[in-house]
Amino acid sequence: MDSYDLDSLIICHKCHTLHHTMEIDYKSKVYCSKCKTVLYQNNPNLLNIILSISISTMILFIISLLFPIIEILVLGSRESFSLPSMVLMLLEKQYYIVGFMLLFLLIIIPFLSISLYIFISIFIKFKISPNITKQLLILLSNIKDWNMIDIFLISILVALVKLLSYFELNLGISFYALILFVIFDLYLNKSIKIYDLWRVYQKNFNIKKEKKDFLENQLVRCHKCEAVNIDTDKEIDCRRCHQRIYHSKTKSINFTLAYLLTAMIAFIPANFYPMLITYKFGNRTQSTIIGGAIEMWDEGSYPIAFIILFASIFIPIIKFILILFLVISSNKDIKKVDKQKIYYITEIIGPLSMIDVFVVSILSSLVHLSTLNIVAGPAASAFAIMVFFTLLSALSFDTRLIKHR
Ligand SMILES: [Zn+2]
Ligand SMILES: [Zn+2]
Q1: Among candidate residues 311, 374, 360, 357, the one with its CA nearest the CA of residue 101
Q2: Rounded to an integer, what distance in angstroms lies between the CA atom of residue 39 and that of residue 61?
Q3: I need a labelling partner for 15 at 20 to 30 A (CA). Which of 9, 71, 171, 390 fits?
Q4: At 66, which helix (H) or strand (E)?
């Protein structure tokens, strides 16, 4: 039996190795002893850095919402496209599933997460209210994985290549603001560890430490706030953020399989129905995801064809197989396979599959002329549903089932 303050422990988010934290020098970082990932850092200026970057990020985000991202010039008239106009257009044309999903992933979540960074750093810095700060940190821990604005930027570049074959283009102010925004936002989300924020929170508000008795193989990591918890083999909630860490084993498998099955069913219409419908001088042509990729290949845009095929076909299939493998092998100990790594892969590759839905949304909200009109096909909604349920399926998978000890 060991006895430690649980907040002095950290479990690596990549390889699940347990470490004891220690006081470290100014501006130094601590790496995982097994996989060399950064675990935490000591930066006394952390709050000031977060505050200044998140305020700049917010300004860039507002600019990228207000002005056009791309303008196309056709016969003297211009059509422009911005993030809000794209969402409005989708909702107006009654693409409710895709419209609301984009509103949520590309506008509400980024806005909320930057605001949270601003408020959390101000609240901790000036020691305002430990309770409200805690609630804000919990909210941030919950939404940070749903930010897809970086994937949207890749989609804009793909859409640009498609548009260039039809039109003369102008890039708007928002295009450049969006690139800077994505860089700053990536910095915030990837390099500021949520664990560091909780550490500073506990230090500044003098949250008292308490020692607990436990066996080392009982410890588990909350994947929302990264707190170390004691696994009692029952349903447990995180001691810090109160999120459910473990369901009962059968419940977790049932949810994972139900979401996965829904995603796999949605994957069928997503591939058989048209993704993109084009009206050129009144003639209707349509293409499925694979058809669209083949078209791009024939036109010589090999990298784009490859990105679309990889993101929309291979990634979903790989993810289905990996999750199924994790579920089926959950009671078996397969020595040669690192299941933690497989789970980590399913978590990070998921958002990439949204690329084609974003591209289709951009094209259909920008190109609606009398001579050429592009609309999203029924596959777009099916595809969006598929991505959403695959994400849910991976999230509801109980990582206790792959604990390798
Ligand atoms: Zn590690
Ligand atoms: Zn937690």
Answers
A1: 357
A2: 29
A3: 390
A4: helix 46-66
Tokens of 375: 């609309």
| Residue 405: per-residue pLDDT | 44
Q: Amino acid letter at 220?
A: V
Q: Which ligand is nearest to the CA of 338?
A: 1
The domain total for the chain is: 1
The DSSP code for 71 is E
Question: What range defines the domain where residue 356 resides?
Answer: 247-405
Structure tokens at 240: 């810090």
Contact 347, 401 (CB under 8 A): no
Query: Which ligand has an atom closest to residue 11 CA?
Result: 1
pLDDT tens for each residue of 2-16: 777 888 888 888 878
Contacts of 368 (CB under 8 A, 6+ apart): 79, 374, 375
Closest CA to 313 of 361, 370, 352, 261: 352
Dihedral pair phi/psi, residue 199, rounded to 5°: -60, -50
Distance 13 CA to ligand 1 centre (A): 7
Q: CATH number of the domain that 371 lies in?
A: 1.20.140
**Hey, which residues does 40 pair with through a beta bridge?**
30
pTM for the whole structure: 0.86
Count of CB atoms situated within 10 Å of the CB of 9? 19
